[in-house]
Amino acid sequence: xxxxxxxxxxxxxxxxxxxxxxxxxxxxxxxxxxxxxxxxxxxxxxxxxxxxxxxxxxxxxxxxxxxxxxxxxxxxxxxxxxxxxxxxxxxxxxxxxxxxxxxxxxxxxxxxxxxxxxxxxxxxxxxxxxxxxxxxxxxxxxxxxxxxxxxxxxxxxxxxxxxxxxxxxxxxxxxxxxxxxxxxxxxxxxxxxxxxxxxxxxxxxxxxxxxxxxxxxxxxxxxxxxxxxxxxxxxxxxxxxxxxxxxxxxxxxxxxxxxxxxxxxxxxxxxxxxxxxxxxxxxxxxxxxxxxxxxxxxxxxxxxxxxxx
Length: 309
Description:
two-stranded antiparallel ribbon, mainly alpha
């Protein structure tokens, strides 16, 4: 019954995994050029100088994303088996990438729309004057702290999720019995004559306990610490510390998103093989949305030449 799953996995690798790695590597290069090359070169994006600090967070997030995909690729194509270290490296890179992405998105929106802690802050329409700039607490101070408290509460549910090893149920992907028998009793023995260590996908495809402990215990605990630090900084009277605290809170929220994403595609679907496919689709959607966001925000035709110099 492994052959159907093997064919499906191969198609996913060819149609999603490899294109995602190629696209992300290309984007990293193009994003670098967009922030460092000057018109009139043909560029996908032109990043004005005043946006480059915010843009850098998104660039780093994509670099971490590519690193995570590289570790996944080594596990899939070279080791041909589940590996604790590779999975841990993949998870760590992904969770950091999500943190950087969350901060980058916030900073760009803040630069374009929100203008928090500035005279033209969009919230001034509600506040009717910025108390923060007058030396008092922001009127939305409690709102931010409540949001951070919500993130703190959100780290709790993953601790109650089982970390028991998950094996793939490949029966639903089974091909006709004659084809399955040919694969198991003819093709697999033939392959093993060349590679005695060859193992079928049912044996090598599983989600180890160590990875689940990392994603559902260690990461949430780390996020809790980050949120507490962020709340402490945000409660400061100094505007600079308050702004840093806000970024710390958002960074932690982004990290926690990865834990919940993995919970959805593994425990909620309760099928790690299908979850693996959903994971790849999620990554593809992430890349697509990032490209759309950057294209809309920084199209060369919308940026004056002198802005990018």
